[in-house]
Here is the input.
Amino acid sequence: MLACVRGMVDNLAMNDTTQLPPLPDRLSIDPKSPHHVAAVFEHPVGIRFNGKDRTDVEEYCVSEGWIKVAAGKVVDRKGRPMLIKLKGTVEPYYQD
Here is the structure.
């Protein structure tokens, strides 16, 4: 009986893979943005821009091919960083 239960537990553990939500075409880290998806940020997300990994991306759009990054230490009147748009190839992915 114990061997049977242990086998069922092993099968459950093997099938217990968490499904990651699909990465959207456009995503923002700003919670006030309409393009913010909180479920995506429960897992580490990486952005590859023009073949190089970027860690400073604030927002991206795959279909239009751009990312927005902070422009140095400059902030707007509400204290949010000023963003510049860079165009190129955008590849979002989940980090391991």
Strands lie at 26-28, 45-49, 52-54, 57-61, 66-75, 81-87, 90-94.
